Amino acid sequence: MPTLAESMQALRTIAASEPVATLAAAFAARGHEFALVGGPVRDALLGRPVTDLDFTTSARPEETREILDSLTRSVWDVGRDFGTIAARLGGEDVEITTYRAESYREDSRKPEVRYGDTIEADLVRRDFTINALALMLPDLRLVDVGASSESGAGGVEDLLAGVIRTPGPPEDSFTDDPLRMLRAARFASQLGFTVAAETQEAMAEFAERLDIVSAERVRDEFVKLLRTADPDPGLRLLVDTGLAERFLPEFTALRATQDDHGRHKDVYEHSLTVLRQAIELEHSRAHEPSPDVVLRIAALLHDIGKPATRRFERGGVTFHHHDVVGAKLARKRLRELRFDNDTVKRVSRLVELHLRFFGYSDQQWTDSAVRRYVRDAGEELERLHILTRADVTTRNRRKAERLEHAYDDIERRIGELAEAEELAAVRPELDGERIMAILGVPPGPMVGRAYKFLLELRLDEGPIGEAAAEERLRQWWAEQGA
């Protein structure tokens, strides 16, 4: 962490820049308080890049809109009901929110918003002391409301100590907005901080309160956690406090499931290791997109079918078809969390395919099997490469090296076949129109059956040319007794 002098210099630099100086002067001229608040102040003090500019003001939303309209033509409501107006000014997108306080009713999924009159009252209602910091503009006064809290620890002190705690009693904070419990986990991963003991206890006590928060808000916070450089600490905190059980029970169930006759680490630890290794491979292979949320969800959930398929047979433990069961469970859970259809489809497909490779090292596949592997993976092939490699967590070095070499080999063969056959676009030599013309049939199920026959032929034997494909099609047609 930089020195206090360096941090204050970073804040002064932000304050002197456009559009901050312009905004501060405009609000001051209208007699309103104006401050840079929350994440930007925190990140500047930590020496982290400041990417978003969030401000708060004593002005009501309609007054904020008037001031912004006088400065730029690009103004829009982010959430007028929540007191937030946004604008593009000096090449920057900014959000300005009226001082406020918000809380949830017992039966509400949306917070009730009340406007406040002082910066101190606004900061007290924020989630954590490290975010309850404001730089008043244009006078450059740092307000650290946490320093006067019951704990006596302010945001600056907690930044120095690497601690996440609420400005007031955690039970009040989490009752007001239960999503803050997920944010605590996210910040633990994002910043590498430790959540204070009393804050963790309150997270466990009020975990059920998360049920009133909409699935969309829970999903968004979960995604933010997964996008951090190291989601592991945050995920463990969610499981340990019972929060994960509220929205991802299939993952928490893994703690009670062991494989390899109980001698190996449990499936929960294995899944976290696979996630960590997938992130490492994501970086080392310069994989795009990065961070890859689809890949990370698939890594986390790839074994969630194991608890439902665990069987004790001949003194051992089996998990037959856990890939198929896991894909169904992942699909159901992600839909309940309101993930988009594309993400649901991609994640469930990766979970379903994650075991396909194992066994290749014992009996090398034919070219036909390799083609099918690529065909089944489709657009998820690169993700499947990463997930399959990450799924090797054995402590047996010889076994790990054998699997690594085997996957090196299959990737090499995929590359060679792709170069020779345009493998990524495998399709029959004859399309539907040619099939109908050759067989003299109209559109219908028979054309689909013929197409599938030609596709299997292409996968088994590779390119054979249109003439040979037509001959084989006629032979197949004759065998159908047409």
From TrEMBL:
Which Gene3D superfamilies does the UniProt entry name for this protein?
Beta Polymerase, domain 2, cca-adding enzyme, domain 2
Q: Which organism is it from?
A: Leucobacter massiliensis
**What superkingdom does the record give?**
Bacteria
Q: Note the coiled coil stretches, chain numbering.
A: none
The protein's UniProt keywords, in alphabetical order, are:
Magnesium, Metal-binding, Nucleotide-binding, Nucleotidyltransferase, Transferase, tRNA processing
Q: Which GO terms describe its molecular function?
A: metal ion binding; nucleotide binding; nucleotidyltransferase activity; tRNA binding
GO BP term (any one) = tRNA processing
Tell me which InterPro entries the record gives.
Bact_CCA-adding_enz_type3_sf, HD/PDEase_dom, HD_domain, HDIG_dom, NT_sf, PolA_pol_head_dom, PolyA_RNA-bd, tRNA_adenylyltransferase
Q: What is this protein called?
A: CCA tRNA nucleotidyltransferase
Claim: Nucleotidyltransferase is one of the keywords in the record: yes
Q: What is the lineage of its organism?
A: Bacteria, Bacillati, Actinomycetota, Actinomycetes, Micrococcales
